[in-house]
Specification:
Structural class: alpha/beta
Number of strands: 15
Shape: elongated
CATH architecture of the largest domain: 3-Layer(aba) Sandwich
CATH superfamily of the largest domain: HUPs
Helix content: 25-40%
Length: 296
């Protein structure tokens, strides 16, 4: 006769830690507490999608931000980061149960609706109880907005359309990019709008190219600004995505420092101007639009 396990396990990527993830983790934490089980969250690095597509801009938050988010909202849950490598990718569902789950002694495994595991894609609800005696599988139904399931892929679609307020609602926070201030062409200062050139993580999803009103967090201080993300077609002809932020009422050298840029509003699409003078006139309008938005 088998003895019941001591842990509750939750499996998922949790990219962005959106509303759907929070429902899953809230239920998971509640059940673990009520049954006096140690809660363990299993997540993966890299994201399985990036294992197959390492150059893609796909993530809603980089790994350190994701872990920081989970720890801040769910401090009592132990986080187990599993390397997604060739060995894991080639595991069958049965092997996954034996090699990843079994030694953690789970009495409960909590998953999102219809989660499949192993290269043979077996439903967790079917394979886990058959391989781990006395282990219950709890499937949590998705969170919806009307008829749309709130998911990381829906949020990526909203970002691609510049729908900042929908993204904010689904993430329960602003979408943000974290990066290091690098050196640019210093062209902005020649037309009266110096910018911070921010080098962002190569796998962070690219939102709709254009101009946004943003909040900038630098050493725990907050500033307002206007950001252009895209390829700067007026002054550049390469394919590199550039993130440039003009911080309002700001005059400091912060080269090499880490900044977080929080998306607040979509202003307009990126566009190529026939002259720097026309670009400057447009930036003046954009700054006024952003100042109105922030009521400053």
């Amino acid at each position: 006769m088998s003895s019941r396990g001591k842990t509750a396990i939750c499996i998922g990527n949790f990219d962005g830690l959106h509303k759907g993830h929070r429902k899953l983790l809230d239920e998971f934490q509640k059940r673990a507490r009520s049954e006096n089980l140690k809660p363990i969250l299993i997540t993966f690095r890299p994201h399985p999608f990036l294992f197959f597509n390492p150059q893609k801009r796909y993530l809603l938050s980089d790994y350190s931000k994701k872990i920081e988010l989970i720890r801040s909202v769910y401090p009592s849950i132990e986080i187990n980061i599993t390397e997604f490598d060739k060995k894991l990718q080639s595991m069958s569902a049965k092997e996954y149960c034996e090699q990843i789950l079994m030694d953690k002694e789970p009495a409960l495994v909590c998953v999102g609706y219809d989660l499949q595991i192993g290269h043979d894609k077996k439903y967790a609800r079917d394979i886990i109880p058959s391989e781990i005696p006395d282990c219950e599988v709890l499937e949590i139904s998705p969170v919806k907005d009307g008829d749309k399931i709130i998911s990381s892929s829906l949020i990526r679609e909203c970002l691609a359309s510049g729908e900042v307020s929908d993204v904010r609602e689904y993430l329960m926070r602003d979408f943000s990019m974290i990066g290091i201030v690098g050196t640019g062409k210093k062209l902005g200062r020649t037309i009266g709008f110096p910018t911070l050139n921010i080098e962002i993580h190569k796998n962070i999803v690219s939102p709709r190219f254009g101009v946004y009103g943003v909040e900038i967090v630098l050493n725990d201080e907050k500033f307002y600004g206007i950001m252009n993300i895209g390829k700067n077609p007026t002054v550049s002809d390469d394919e590199q995505i550039k993130v440039e932020v003009h911080v309002l009422d700001f005059n400091r050298d912060v080269y090499g420092e880490e900044v977080e840029v929080r998306f607040k509003s979509f202003v307009r699409d990126e566009k190529k101007f026939d002259s720097l003078d026309l670009l400057k006139q447009q930036i003046l309008k954009d700054v006024n639009t952003v100042k109105e938005y922030f009521e400053i």
